[in-house]
Amino acid sequence: MKLLILNGPNLNLLGIREPAIYGHETFADLCERIKAYAKEKGIEVRLVQSNHEGDLVDAIQQAYFDGLDGIVMNPGAYTHTSIALLDALKGVGLPAVEVHISDPDTREDFRKISFVRAACVATIKGHGTQGYFEAIDLLIDRLSEA
Ligand code: CA2
Questions:
Q1: Which residues are identified as catalytic?
Q2: Inter-residue contact 109 to 10 (CB < 8 Å)
Q3: Pocket test residue of 16, 21, 22 for ligand 1, highest count of atoms within 8 A of CB
Q4: Which of these, 41, 49, 79, 89, has the minimum number of CB atoms within 10 Å of its CB?
């Protein structure tokens, strides 16, 4: 089983700024923890972060072309703006889980809309970086049942 772990714009700044919202863990440390967790669970992960919408679309398509099994995705601010990401997720048809470190529904009104949600099997929000691990577990359970 191989999962794409996709992170959108500015998530590379984790741990550097806004710790009150996003915590103290750096993005590099989070990536290392995800790799270690995947190893423990006996799965593979492909970690991609980009600040560019088209690169995120490319990563979703590439996951499909390469036969990956599912996607854990924090699209960052593109969550609230991107029909291109929604179309890409719908287009590849891979099970995807939307993750947010904070809970966007309790923040500014413009964060209350998620375009990608319609193409995701679940949304995990407000659980800090732990949400990525919950999303991985969810996909492992779902894909193991299939
Ligand atoms: O809570 C989340 O995970 C978000 O997807 C994070 C996005 C935000 O636009 C979404 O509404 C909710 C922002 C990611 C920016 O991350 C930063 C981390 C540290 C410092 C500055 C930005």
A1: 22, 100
A2: no
A3: 22
A4: 41
Q: Measured between alpha carbons, how far is 127 from 58 in angstroms, rounded to an integer?
A: 28
Burial 47-83 (b: 16+ CB within 10 A, else e): bbbbbebeebbebbeebbeeebbbbbbbbbbbbbebe
- CA angle, 8 as apex, 142 and 109 as ends, to 5°? 95
For residue range 32-42, list pLDDT tens digits in order.
999 999 999 99
Helices and strands in the chain: count of H runs, count of E runs: 5, 5
Q: Enter the pTM of the model.
A: 0.97
Question: What token pair was written down for 31?
Answer: 């990536």
Spacing, Cα 95 to ligand 1 middle (Å): 22
Please give the pLDDT value at position 17: 83
| Calpha distance 41→36 (Å, rounded) | 9
Decide whether any atom of ligand 1 lies within 6 Å of the 132 Cβ.
Answer: no
pLDDT band of 98, cuts 50, 70, 90: very high
Q: How far apart are CA 135 and CA 38, in angstroms?
A: 12
